[in-house]
Amino acid sequence: MNSLPFNIDSIRAEFPILHQQVNGHRLAFLDNAASSQRPDAVIDAVSHYYRNDHANVHRGVHHLSHRATDAYEGAREKIRAFINARSIREIVFTSGTTESINLLANSLGQTMQAGDEVIVSRMEHHSNIVPWKLLAERMGIVIKVAPINEQGELVLDELAKLFSAKTKLLAIAHVSNALGTINPVADIVALAKQHDVPVLLDGAQAVPHSKVDVQAIDCDFYAFSSHKMCGPTGIGVLYARESLLENMPLFMGGGEMVISVSFEKTIYNDLPYRFEAGTPPIAQAIGLGAAVDYLEGIGMDNIAAYEHQLLELATTALSDIDGLRIIGTAAEKAAVISFVFDDIHPHDLGTVLDHQGVAIRTGHHCANPVMDFFGVPGTARASLAFYNDAEDIEQLVKALHVAVGMFR
Amino acid sequence: MQVYQKTVLEHSRKPHHFGPLATATHSAEGFNPLCGDKVTVYLNMSSNGTISEASHETSGCAICMSSASMMADAIQVLNFETAKALCSQVNTMLTSDSTGNPPGMPLQSLEGVRAYPSRVKCATLPWQTLLTAMMGETLTTTEQEA
To answer: Are B58 and B68 within 8 A, CB to CB?
Structure first.
């Protein structure tokens, strides 16, 4: 590895979970695309909140409620700054990327008619397919699918042909969870703008690994999850351009999203609260705020640079293993390596690797259409984070050699 | 590793009784939708329930493949009740804490799978599919009871 942008040993020391033995081996956690781990700073922030500050937000006149509200809304501001949204009015808390997309589908769906079209791509996670399929089944919208090539890259020329007067939304991954492909999102948004079509980006795999600036990308909606970026589970974000969000039909009803309720008349709350019914995930938001502080302390550009070095190291090392084929070889890739052997099933690999302390994901990665495209039942996937190191890669390679020796 | 014993690996590399059966009277497909494993079981079974010939076509991991291969070996010429009892013995071996009545070798070489909860369905899928075929049904998945 070239000169590192930070001290990896210090970083690793901040993640308590990494320092344990699994099946008698050092843990090499390479399943970060499924869910990341948490540093002390996040664990402590959540713990501190529950030990000192917890009460319900936005409603109490008592001291703890004020403190909880300040911490909760402080987290929203941190997230706004992190993705460079214009205003906190554009930051809707959800339970995660999946709920963010479902919120959008259910809200925008109320403005669509049978025959209206939503464009997705072949590389989408199921969470950016099924909400649209539900709309198709419920009200007859049409889903158009942008193809990918053998490298796992979006075919932009073909995407461009899918727009029509009936296209209501382009919903596409920023980074593919199964292939690691980084899509040229600014170009894609510019293309959609030519057709006056709003764009949703599924940023679940992008936000944890590089600087995301929603104004620079110029997208209309951007969805991501806390648990993939060192924050707590159970919270995510839907960024929505205020001019669009202002006029979007409501999704869930309940407390928080209203100002006054009678059986004659309901007055709905301001943005973003009218899209946040019920008591929100307060501790999770505060933990996510702490995760944002932590990531910014390291620097997203440093994280991206380091992970790129790890990716190159791992790609070279894996390519040397006889019979190993990497699925997803896009020119622009995040630190995700999907691979297969023709003669070893991914689940057998997963079990043998686990036995040696190496945690990877095996299977279809909630992306069946990608697996079908490449003609494989599933893949093994090593996904890296900035707290992984060269030793993790060595351990992976060594474990793969053991598996190859066992099954051949 | 306990789970990948020599016998298991041999059966997975060169599965026995592999391929469709021209004389099949019963057949069923079994799917594991979580991992994409697929087993098709073919039986030549008389009206009194005697299996006179059996084969399988399996697409899956080493555990699923070897379980299907050993199963096909074990059920060539077997009556209905004995085949059903064998399914139950294998199921108990793979899923229950009680030792029960072990199915004997080589099937017992699959016993190590029990230590890997996420892989148990790989081993039980062929047997679930066999039961489905014996009952005259044609389709089963690991997400439902046979």
So the answer is: yes
- Could you give the CA distance from residue A223 to residue B36 in angstroms, rounded to a whole number? 29
Nearest CA in chain A to B10: A407
Residue showing tokens 């293309």: A191
**Which site among B61, B121, B125 would you substitute to test the A interface, given the most A Cβ atoms closer than 10 Å to its Cβ?**
B61
Taking only Cα atoms into account, the Rg of chain B, rounded to an integer number of angstroms, comes to 14
Q: How far is B74 from chain A (nearest CA, A)?
A: 24
ipTM value, please give it. 0.88
B6-140 topology per CATH: Sufe protein. Chain: A (3.90.1010)
Structural domain range at position A12: 8-30+299-407
Q: Any chain B CB within 8 A of the CB of A254?
A: no
Q: What is the CATH number of the domain that holds A219?
A: 3.40.640.10
Query: Is the pLDDT assigned to residue B1 strictly greater than 80?
Result: no
Nearest to A17 by CA among A33, A28, A6: A28
CB contact (8 A) between residue B35 and residue A378:
yes
Mean pLDDT of chain B, nearest integer: 92
Q: What is the CATH number of the domain that holds A334?
A: 3.90.1150.10
pLDDT tens-digit series, residues B100-117: 788 888 999 999 999 898
- Which residues does chain B have within 8 Å of residue A377's beta carbon, measured at their own beta carbons? 35-37, 59-60
Q: Does one domain contain both A139 and A240?
A: yes
The per-residue pLDDT for A255 is 87
Query: Is residue A366 annotated as a catalytic residue, yes or no?
Result: yes
Q: Please, are residues A222 and A200 in contact by the beta-carbon 8 Å criterion? A: yes
**pLDDT digit string, tens, across residues A256-271:** 898 889 899 999 999 9
Catalytic residue among A366, A390, A397, A402: A366
